[in-house]
Design brief:
heterodimer, A: 250 residues, mainly alpha, Arc Repressor Mutant, subunit A, 3-stranded antiparallel β-sheet, B: 177 residues, alpha+beta, 5 helices, transport (chain A), WH_DNA-bd_sf (chain A), membrane (chain A), Snf8/Vps36 (chain A), endosome (chain A)
Chain lengths: 250, 177
Amino acid sequence: MRRGIGVGAIKKEKLHQEKYRGKGNQIQENQLEQMSKQMEVFKTNLEDFATKHKNEIRKNPEFRKQFQEMCSSIGVDPLSSGKGFWSILGIGDFYYELAVQIVEVCLATTAKNGGLISLDELRTKLIKARGQSKSHQEISKDDLIRAAKKLRIFGSGFNVIPMGKDRYMVQSVPGELSMDHSIILQQAEKNTAHVSISYICKELNWENERCQKALEHMVDQGLAWIDSQDPQEIQYYFPSLYTACINSNA
Amino acid sequence: MPEVEIDWPWQYNFPPFYTLQQHPETRSKQVAAWKSLILNYCEKTKNYTIDVRDTNQCPLFNNSTINRKLEPDIIISILGELQRTGNAAPVDKAKNRWEIYWHTLEEWATIVYDFINERGMQNTVVTLYELTQGEDSIDTTFYGMNQDVLIKVLRVLEGDRKCELILEDDIQGAKFF
């Protein structure tokens, strides 16, 4: 077979390439168009679905979570959509209401826990506060996290702190908590609500100074209490993790 | 001390409750909790006096379960806070002995005077013993009241011209108007 050489061959080659590119673009455009169509269909279906299952979304927390996930996969946030189609669902309202109740529970318990509360305690107190009339509407931890995260728009006053393995704490007072602080909280949680400098240093292999700095910060934030009557060394206690404090209604 | 069930608050078994907290907000929560615990405890146990030197024996300030106790100087400063609201007063200069008023003297005065009125006991002389140990007052909240405290309460009423104290050798009581 004769190889293409010379100017003619080069031109021909170029022509081919252009054709390919044109075809490629066309295919891409087709695909995009199809995708957009599919998305449009999906969105319509999602809206249909949402309207049809409005009550289930409101009542069933598991259902609600999965619905939220579907929505976020196509970039719809029913929480932030106060207007238009999504508002008729009242899903946004549901979360706004939750957010307000979260603030109420946090404020009511700040006196004893210094503004730090475990998500579990928050949930128990909030469900109790909502009362029997709304008992048909079950509140999941996922709902609370979503609602609490919305509160961030008010600034650094509200924070959801991951504690590992489906455990969270909600911080309701301004003041940054770093990674070090949440790690200390995790340590305190598994050690009946208290830690000491040497305990942390040993468990986490930290420098003495790093540990001291982090603990002092938490005392300054009103999150930790000092116990100087331990025979070994100063202990730092966290009322927000202390079982009797969590269970008290005061 | 009579045996009564104390409904201890959660702080009672919280070890740092017995160390005075340095952080201002935390400390004010701590002091407030101590103030109400002291008043509740004294009311339940009908303890009208606290001697700061004896607090080692008192479960209120010495929690043997968790091996923590509140030091006398901290106790004195908390009692000082209670004094500001009329809920405590030192008896001696060294501030070792204190009277505790879970009702302020003025509140007690009203309670006693209402009792006298209900019984129609005005214009009669009632002895201190009758008031706090008598059959008629068994159901009152001031039954068994410390006599020194009672006299202070009656002095309040005297100041309002609602009674006249009689503190003679042979009779100790008050005539109510």
